[in-house]
Amino acid sequence: MKFVGLTPQERAVRIIKLLQAATSGMVEAASVSIAKEFGRDPYLVLASCLLSLRTKDSVSLPASLRLFKLATTPEEMLQVPLTQIEKIIYPTGFYRNKAKTLHSVSKDLIDRFKGKVPNTLDDLLSIKGVGLKTANLVLAEGFEIPAICVDTHVHRISNRLGLVKTKTPDETEHELKKIIPKEYWREYNHLMVMWGQNVCVPISPFCSKCVLAPLCPKVGVTSQR
Fold it and tell me: Which of 73, 77, 137 is nearest to 103 (CA)?
């Protein structure tokens, strides 16, 4: 199967359709698991995303679930001492900074947004500690607003597939919005995270068992399994 004669948008949709089938049964992204466990709560999506920064889902998700047993609102989070939060989230990287960020973000939400997570990109980005990736994930998973969350998996795989030719996640988001129909924006992150964790891994991806291999140019791939 090749992409000959397909437009960039048709290529993107074909990839999405293939991955929808191929990821069936895989462990879902942490944000999806949080929503299933606690409901679609923007604050919990935000908090879990802050914990996941530069940390694998297999580590950050259990830490999030432990923390949410004690606090599920900004007010409750501020009642948990920083030292206790640090112990709870310890396995995640930069746990001391993340504990401070959880407190500062929670206080900002109370002071400026009456304790509610805002549902606009500009407001989310105005919160210190919240970057574009986190803001888009909150919009997508917390509010079901179409947004493309570009993490390391989305950035890496989109470039390997030749869907984009970008150097930064911000550039990747901008380019993906041009070719991916809005109806797939939220799902695209889920698919890429699962594929990136199981098949299209950073070093020596499992091209031999990848359903996209026959149509993937493998941009930047120097070794494969």
Answer: 77
For residues 121 and 137, membership in a common domain is answered with yes
| Structural domain boundaries enclosing 186 | 8-28+148-215
In eight-state DSSP terms, residue 139 is I
Cα–Cα dist 91/112, whole Å? 31
Domain boundary among 107, 123, 143: 143
Statement to judge: residues 51 and 135 lie in one domain: yes
Q: Is 106 within 8 Å of 85 (Cβ atoms)? A: no
Q: Which of 140, 122, 127, 105 is nearest to 31 (CA)?
A: 140
Q: What percent of the chain has pLDDT above 70? A: 98
- For residue 1, pLDDT over 60 is answered with no
pLDDT-derived band at 2, boundaries 50, 70, 90 = low
Mean pLDDT of the chain: 93
Which one-letter DSSP state was computed for residue 29? Answer: P
The residue behind tokens 């291999």 is: 213
Instruction: Tell me what percent of the chain is helix, strand and coil, each rounded to the nearest 5.
Output: 60, 0, 40
Distance CA 89, CA 107 (A): 19
**Both tokens assigned to 41:** 């709560």
pLDDT of residue 18: 96
139 and 154 housed in the same domain: no
Q: What is the pTM of this model?
A: 0.89
